[in-house]
Design brief:
Largest sheet: none
Radius of gyration: 23 Å
Number of helices: 19
Order of helices and strands: HHHHHHHHHHHHHHHHHHH
Distance between the termini: 15 Å
Shape: globular
Length: about 475
């Protein structure tokens, strides 16, 4: 079930809110758990069992790790939990990838398993892993209440596509949280704005990307238009979903961490990855990079650590070489910046941002390619390789057709609007005007988006495939 769908907005969510707010405090986690299982089972009924199995393994492992914390058995239980959950992820997400590459390397024809990818498995597996590791490290006590732990893992606002919410961040709120009108209002505001980013900007730019891929009239500028459109499409698609998840969490009394912080204003790839998909970046930092030694090792080992983290980051996104190359591509730039020119980028105001946008633009062309052959072809087209013309008729036509949305996207991916509204609010009369206009604007926005959904407009969600 998509957040940006009529069934979710006008059937599922209202029912959940009514049940949640009338339920006694002791039963609110139970309501969240049961409704989240319905939400997941709506599209993946058979894989609810897999998710419940993962939760039970995490729950029992946490108790055993804590019970034997003074003995070596605790490490054994940790590795059993990690191994089983990673095994689930590897089987369902990567089995066919491994078989395909085995067949290519050996010339054999081992049949593919054709396993459907359980939605959200990458996200909830990482949540369970972080929980058991944190219990092992004694950063958090093991959760004794199975319903509370299951509610944390299955919580539908962040279940399907993140952000990756760590147990340690909301452990206290699972026991006691503020559920009030102020949190409801702020959460609903955040949810509607995120929905707007998704439906009005991401979906529209997604259409442009699909049009480009089907076009026979490509040119250098059309390739670059596609690269910019896809960058913005991914950003508004995923950050919009994160906004909706954070908003829903706030409604239910949870404070999820931010997942994006205007990444396109960065001056380097290093800064970009401190601002983009922050829950994933910090997860790999805390559970892979630092345990491997981070940068407190010899230079060769440090380079190795970075390449391992970015190989895993790419591979986490999908079972394809394009994702792996995309991850290693960033590893090369991160190492190069740290060794050679990061200090120069940080001093620059214009060239650094041009550099960043080119680097990121090319990276997402790789990310969205069906295979490496297409990725190389598209990158070549961006630089006129193979006699690709500079301009084409379709470039001008689609630039004109999607120009307004592109401009809105380019402005919206910066803090300009937020800072402008904050400055207006600082003035007494400005704050009063915003207080009147904002709810009217949000209601109007919801009506417009509902019309889009009723019309059956283009409405995929990119990160469902991860």
């Amino acid at each position: 079930m998509l957040f940006s769908s009529i069934p979710f907005l006008y059937y599922f969510l209202p029912v959940v809110l009514i049940l949640y707010f009338i339920a006694p405090k002791k039963l609110k986690n139970s309501v969240l758990l049961l409704t989240s299982l319905v939400f997941y089972g709506w599209g993946e009924p058979k894989y609810v069992v897999l998710m419940i199995a993962s939760i039970l393994i995490g729950y029992v492992s946490g108790l055993l790790i804590e019970a034997f914390s003074q003995k070596k058995l605790s490490k054994l239980f940790l590795w059993l939990s990690v191994g089983i959950n990673i095994g689930f992820l590897a089987y369902f997400k990567y089995a066919d990838f491994f078989i395909e590459n085995f067949n290519t390397a050996t010339g054999l024809s081992v049949p593919l398993l054709r396993i459907a990818l359980p939605i959200g498995i990458s996200f909830y597996t990482f949540q369970i892993l972080s929980y058991t590791v944190d219990v092992y490290r004694k950063d958090v006590p093991a959760q004794k209440n199975l319903i509370n732990l299951a509610a944390y893992v299955t919580m539908f606002p962040q279940l399907i596509a993140g952000p990756i919410v760590r147990y340690s961040h909301i452990a206290k709120e699972l026991e006691n949280r503020n559920i009030n009108v102020e949190n409801f209002a702020k959460g609903m505001r955040r949810f509607i704005l995120g929905l707007g980013k998704k439906i009005l900007i991401a979906n529209t730019l997604g259409e442009l990307c699909d049009i480009f891929k089907q076009s026979d009239d490509k040119s250098v500028l059309f390739y670059w238009l596609y690269a910019v459109a896809f960058m913005l499409h991914v950003y508004f698609d995923f950050s919009g979903y994160s906004d909706m998840a954070i908003g829903l969490g706030r409604i239910f009394g949870f404070n999820f961490w931010e997942n994006f912080n205007y990444p396109f204003i960065s001056k380097s790839a290093t800064e970009f990855w401190r601002r983009w998909h922050m829950s994933l970046g910090t997860w790999f930092r805390d559970y892979v990079y630092i345990p491997m030694g981070g940068n407190r090792v010899s230079k060769p080992k440090w380079f190795f650590n970075i390449f391992v983290v970015w190989f895993l980051t790419g591979f986490w996104h999908g079972a394809a070489w394009t994702f792996i190359v995309w991850g290693l591509y960033f590893a090369i730039f991160l190492i190069s910046e740290k060794l050679l020119y990061l200090k120069y980028l940080e001093k620059s105001k214009v060239l650094s941002r041009v550099y960043l946008l080119v680097v990121v633009g090319i990276s997402f062309v790789i990310f969205n390619a069906t295979d490496m052959k297409e990725a190389v072809s598209y990158i070549g087209g961006m630089f006129g390789v193979g006699g690709v013309p500079l301009v084409s008729t379709e470039f001008f036509y689609y630039l004109k057709s999607f120009g307004v949305t592109l401009c809105i996207g380019l402005i919206g991916c910066t803090p300009i609007v937020k800072k402008t509204v904050e400055k207006i609010k600082e003035k007494s009369i400005g704050g009063k005007i915003i207080a009147v206009i904002e709810p009217i604007f949000l209601i109007a926005l919801l009506i417009v988006m509902t019309a889009y959904l009723v019309d059956g407009s283009f409405n995929p969600f990119l990160y469902f495939r991860f």
